[in-house]
Amino acid sequence: MQFSVLGSGSRGNSVLVSAGEVHVLVDAGFSGRELTNRLALVGVEPAAISAIVLTHEHGDHTRGAGVFARAHGTPLLMTEGTRLACRKLFRGNEAIQSYRAGYPVDIERLRIDPFITVHDAADPVAVAVTDSGTGLRLGIATDLGKPTVQIRHALRGCDALIVESNHDEGMLWSAGYPPAVKARIASSHGHLSNRAAADFLAETFHPHLSVVVLAHLSEESNTPRLARAAAARVLAQRGFRGLVEVALPDRPTSVFDLAKLREQAGPPQLSLF
């Protein structure tokens, strides 16, 4: 399994997940043209995308979904609540398949496990993606107001995690947002702080975790340095030997090969904590 975060932030979010010739986009929050450009940067043709899985209706996750699907005949997968909430993006000639949280969906050799998350959207989910050929597993939770017991369970045992690390708490409360916006971001239905993301990663750590990508960073109330430092410090205490990367809004991350990263991490080590 390979993956790349094509970009992440308030301007757009999309993750490419690949297994052999199967390529799936989780969210499509950039314009159709921008999605095409970013796919080109990681060497994938738009026509090669097997499906687009939408996690919720917010524009930074759905903006290009309809245009891209119509241009390339790409199937769209989403919950019924999300379809109703973003129906203006669609013209009726798209191939739309509904899924439900708790019920896996197979896209050739990739199994998508959607699970309920906590966010201020109509029917938000996060997903775990498993390569049935290798058993490698990627967890994606980029809009996560509060990591519940169910979310911890769903992301347990992942070889890679893409997790929101939205804001530094001090920067958020001193930012120029209206008080109501600050309260919404910091609420249990808003976004995870760096500290909360680091605590969540510590709780989901296991010896086979190879790479963590911090996503959905606020450009106004966070920095890559602060987000990475918070996560790396906590993970190091658990004995983590993999990569901690930050997804940026304006370009894709590297393409991460999970099989190779697992080999490089070496044999599992016992945690002292």
Task: Describe the overall structure.
Helices cover 30% and strands 24% of the residues. The protein has 273 residues and is of the alpha/beta class. It starts with a strand and ends in an 8-residue tail after the last helix. Mean pLDDT is 93; it is low at 268-273.
Portion in strands: 15-25%
- Major sheet attributes: 7 strands, mixed
State the strand order across the main sheet.
6-5-4-3-2-1-14
Spatial separation of the terminal alpha carbons: 30 Å
**Proportion of helical residues:** 25-40%
Strand/helix succession: EEEHEHHEHEEEEEHEHHHEHEEH
Outline the low-pLDDT stretches: 268-273
Rounded to the nearest angstrom, the radius of gyration is 17 Å
The number of helical runs is 10
Structural class: alpha/beta
**Count of strand segments:** 14
Shape: globular
Overall pLDDT? 93
